[in-house]
Amino acid sequence: MTYEFQSHFADRIKNLLEYRTSMGRSIQFYKSELANFDRFCLQEFPGEFALTRELAFAWCNNARGSRANRAAIIRGFGRYLTLMMEEEAYIMPTSFFPKQKAKLPHILSEVELKRFFDASDRFDNNAKSPILEYTVPTIFRLMFSTGLRPNEARLLRRQNFNFSDNTIYVADTKNGRDRRLAVSAEMMAMAERYDRIAEMQVPGRVYFFQSPTGEAYTNSWLSKIFDKCWTRSGNERPPRHCSPYSLRHSYATHTLMRWIEEGKDIDAWIPYLSAYLGHSEFRSTFYYIQLLPERLARMDFTDPLVIPHLEIGYEEEIE
């Protein structure tokens, strides 16, 4: 159900969302947080028309959610009101309520990958989900071999696969950047075998990895199965930030390591990796250089004068 903005800021909030949409920017997070802000204003500042310092700080100190996220939203709103609407508004300084630096994601080693995929190959059959034992090893290998985001992998449709030329079409991505991926023959052969088995069990399915309900699997399902495979793999207990997304991070860093070992010019090849991963900005791809082993991270291409934006949070937050 769509939320209807009702505070004295309602029209200006709508204008901001329309402006971001016109600029090709995502509004999902903004819309959700500004809906909370609108409710807060109705309850706590029902007569306020201006974005004041008092209102901004009251909102940031509200009990719900992250103060850093609320500060970022209200800062953006203040800038919009000042620059675009030409009205007086308080702009929250960036030094107030800063985001905590994101922890580095866990990059799976060759040994961890082998153990993890061995465990996925041994996943138990399930009477309620007759193709589960085939789904688990296929979806995780596909994520690692292509660097797909978890959402992209689980939402793939059967029509997205072209087995005649070993490509996958990835649509409705996070940044609205559809792309066609060239996939290894070995991976596509595994996907094609899975497709034949799945089609015999669930004829006419829409999603390539389709749940027993006929819908795509959920994020929580993917995380739960990942954790089960990790536990059964014999790998040491991973940090909390080891998740299905770690397969994407591992794909990117392993690819960079291979290119370095092959003597490739990283600066020249980064754009290809960026396009393959579906990044909207090269900085998101350059970030992975930080995740390389220390002996590689000290190489010339990580010179901060060349790449001045490596102090960013990791890719789950920005891409």
Task: Write structural notes for this entry.
The longest helix has 17 residues, at 28-44. Strands 1-2-3 form a three-stranded antiparallel beta sheet, with no helix packed on it. It folds into three domains: 10-83; 110-233, Intergrase catalytic core (hpI Integrase, Chain A); 246-318, no CATH class. With 319 residues, the chain is mainly alpha-helical. It is elongated and about 65 Å long. The protein is built from 14 helices and three strands.
Features:
3-stranded antiparallel β-sheet; 319 residues; disordered C terminus; 3 domains; elongated; 14 helices; hpI Integrase, Chain A; mainly alpha
Count all strands and give the number. 3
**How far apart lie the N and C ends?**
27 Å
Question: What percent of the residues sit in helical stretches (DSSP H or I)?
Answer: 40-55%
**How would you classify the helix and strand content by structural class?**
mainly alpha
**How much strand?**
under 5%
> According to CATH, what is the class of the largest domain?
Mainly Alpha
- Low-pLDDT segments: 301-319
Across the major sheet, the strand order is 1-2-3
- Helix count, per DSSP? 14
Can you summarize the main beta sheet?
3 strands, antiparallel
CATH topology-level fold name of the largest domain: hpI Integrase, Chain A
CATH superfamily of the largest domain: Intergrase catalytic core
Which helices and strands appear, and what pairs or packs with what?
Elements: H1 10-22, H2 28-44, H3 53-60, H4 67-83, H5 110-121, H6 132-146, H7 150-154, E1 161-162, E2 167-170, E3 179-182, H8 185-201, H9 219-233, H10 245-261, H11 266-277, H12 282-286, H13 294-297, H14 315-318
Antiparallel strand pairs: 1-2, 2-3
